[in-house]
Design goal:
Rossmann fold, homodimer, SH3 type barrels, alpha/beta, five-stranded antiparallel sheet
């Protein structure tokens, strides 16, 4: 992929840049509507609105500036061009860690169709590398396009496909794995990979973006840099999710794969660790590890268990909800339920007889809370104790979404003949940091 | 209800108190394990652990102190006994606002069975008044026991029963209504009452507690005081939920009834306003109103619409979930669905044909997000636009739980023959602050 001197610029804007003898990589100053911007001129996509200039600011963040009649542009200094070219071929870089970027789709690997305003998955991992050239300084990067999926379409078979791909590259000896993934179901996939790839010898980092990478406000570049740096250098072998900690660009949180959910539809800091803190932060080019219970990089404890059984179902309880739906689903072949109950893990009393029937048939019923934060405790109130007697398994502080993924994994690994006691034992065993029988101390953000 | 001088104290602790000539209401000092406590000696329940003393600290908060061998107790000053007696009969208090406390159950109206450790609903509104005597200084209180329910057992008919009771007392001319309610489903009930009792002439305040009122760490008293003060004095006629803002006792938040959920299983500050801020705070005896779009107290816009139809269903989407469940439920009579989709409002593409079938049959399908915070926007990605074409109605920034309650209310009010367009119009119309088509500006807590 060549990078001409003004790639992506056309029309009036291109003329203005040419007049000032500016090319991509130069440091420039733009004054527009009374505001002054200083930064490095970046390449753009051909399809983008021709009236915008993309600048990389000194904080590493890209912004888009609309060029109007009153806009003036001047060159401050010529850029070191190679920095904005396709990174040199791997053989010219020695000593850097090997990182594989596996692209599965999502906003981080998508671009806006300017005519329609819609976002489509389009960029492959090579493209990402071309627009975030800093990556070449962090690691020797290889790329693989595995899927091109909106993450709402990621299914259990894709979790298995991703696990297989990661396992393949682990055996090829990479120093770290990055998976680009849509944010919608990235938490579910992170949990699935945490169970399928236990105690891996290298970091496995899922990364997404809330704004597509050719939008000026995109978080794609900063998230991807943190993900690649973590994959390359982190001292742990864990499945993590790399996303903005705050609204601003300065800190990227590395969330444990079994503790993370998307808690905001659109904010850059949409991802949160629940009932746990992120295990590390990436800030100013440095990775700061804060958890002390991590599997060390290079450990020999790696276990690969990529089986899942889809016949598990997550039910969110609500007032006046009829329990018959559980029987109907069980009759259709569902082997286990996660009930997202209220408060400490409750459903209305009229659910008790049907739940007892299910567990007597060997169908697993686990309880989590729709409160998300905190833990279920079914010993406090009569309702909880009646549910326990009916065979419900309280899943401590596990997220509902993670509990569902773990149940699919448990059913897949134990196979058809598995008994309730076996399933319960595995569901309550901490496999990848997903369940703690005691809470962490209260923190400012719970 | 008599209050003997050392009610609830027995054994060694009672002897110690008698030796020092201490009775309930006295200010005392306790030194135990090197720590010093000063406060007013409170009455206790007979069944409580006899080795504890309950002190009311100067901040109004009750704590329990275990009496050990090295504990010393001394009297600082004799208390003004009447303060801890049953409040004087209403006729002796003139000029105070009239507040009705309607008890429906929950932890705030419960006590711990110390033998079993379980919590049972037991206290009625009179009991609450007896243990929180400060209430008598705020308002002339009447009490009514409507239900004694754990809130996971609250059903649609109870919402209707509560609406009827509140409407009855509004017509009797009370200055404010307080409903004690279990916390598990208090958010759902608050939404239901917000739709059933629109623009009421007086405040309607739901209040709960995360710890039962005879536990030393109970939040019952502080929440109840704030609730009664709000009912008595607030300048607005709105349905609100009064619960701790922080972990500490100093601020109680008044959440808008259509914007509040329980987001932690056990923390005192479990309740949060979502996509909105609390409309007021109660602190140091003062109510500070922060919202500026409130229905004023005494307004003539009151509308009473207590109809609900239970044939609505909330579905939480997850990866590999089969859409058949929607058809099964529709065949069983469900008139409308709220889908808690991913991210901006998505489900996997294989759901589109079944959803189209449902909407063609006149069944409502509304979309919210399992992210909770933020709003759905189905115009950004192909999946969203396909769902829109299939007839899905995006419900902006409405909480899933509130959308479900509103759908039940909409179906109940429009009746059997209602067409999809009518339902859609009402679902998207802002009735009680539940839906804003534009976001509030970003705040520190979203």
């Amino acid at each position: 992929m060549d990078m001409p001197e003004l790639q992506g610029y056309s029309g009036i804007v291109r003329k203005l840049l040419e007049q000032e003898n500016i090319s991509i990589g130069d440091e420039i100053e733009i004054i527009s509507d009374g505001r002054k911007y200083r930064g490095i001129l970046m390449a753009r996509y051909e399809l983008a609105d021709p009236n915008y200039i993309t600048l990389k600011l000194s904080n590493g963040y890209n912004i888009g500036i609309r060029v109007a009649e009153n806009t003036s542009i001047s060159k401050i200094s010529a850029g070191a061009k190679p920095m904005f070219m396709r990174p040199p071929k791997p053989q010219t870089l020695s000593g850097l860690p090997n990182v594989i970027i596996i692209s599965t789709g999502g906003t981080i690997a998508s671009r806006v169709e300017y005519r329609t305003g819609a976002v489509r998955p389009a960029l492959n991992a090579d493209d990402l590398l071309a627009i975030v050239p800093e990556l070449a300084e962090i690691a020797k990067i290889d790329t693989e396009v595995l899927y091109s999926l909106f993450s709402e379409n990621v299914q259990v078979q894709h979790w298995i496909g991703m696990a297989e791909a990661v396992d393949h590259f682990i055996h090829k000896g990479v120093d770290g794995v990055v998976l680009t993934h849509g944010t919608d179901t990235m938490g579910y996939t992170a949990a699935a990979l945490s169970f399928a790839l236990q105690k891996p010898p290298v970091p496995i980092v899922l990364v997404g973006a809330q704004r597509s990478s050719d939008r000026p406000s995109s978080d794609a570049a900063t998230n991807l840099i943190a993900a690649v740096a973590t994959a390359a250098k982190a001292p742990f072998g864990e499945v993590v999710v790399a996303m903005h900690k705050w609204h601003s660009d300065d800190i990227i949180a590395l969330h444990r794969g079994t503790r993370v959910i998307k808690l905001h539809t659109s904010s850059r800091d949409a991802f949160r660790s629940v009932n746990s803190r992120p295990i590390a932060y990436y800030q100013h080019g440095e990775l700061k590890v804060v958890a002390n219970d991590l599997n060390p990089r290079g450990s020999n404890n790696y276990t690969y268990k990529p089986k899942f059984d889809e016949r598990a179902f997550l039910v969110k309880f609500f007032p006046s909800m009829k329990p018959d739906i559980l029987s109907i689903l069980a009759d259709s072949g569902i082997r286990g339920f996660i009930i997202e109950g209220t408060g400490l893990g409750h459903v209305s009393s009229d659910w008790v007889p049907i739940i007892r029937e299910l567990t007597e048939r060997g169908i697993f019923v686990g309880m989590t809370s729709q409160c998300k934060f905190g833990r279920v405790n079914m010993n406090v109130y009569d309702t909880g104790r009646d549910l326990l007697k009916a065979g419900v398994v309280p899943l401590d502080d596990m997220l509902s979404e993670v509990a569902l993924v773990k149940l699919m994994w448990t059913l897949g690994n134990l196979g058809e003949g598995a008994g309730l006691e076996e399933i319960k034992k595995l569901m309550l065993m901490n496999i990848a940091g997903e369940i703690y029988s005691r809470s962490l101390p209260n923190t400012d953000s719970w």
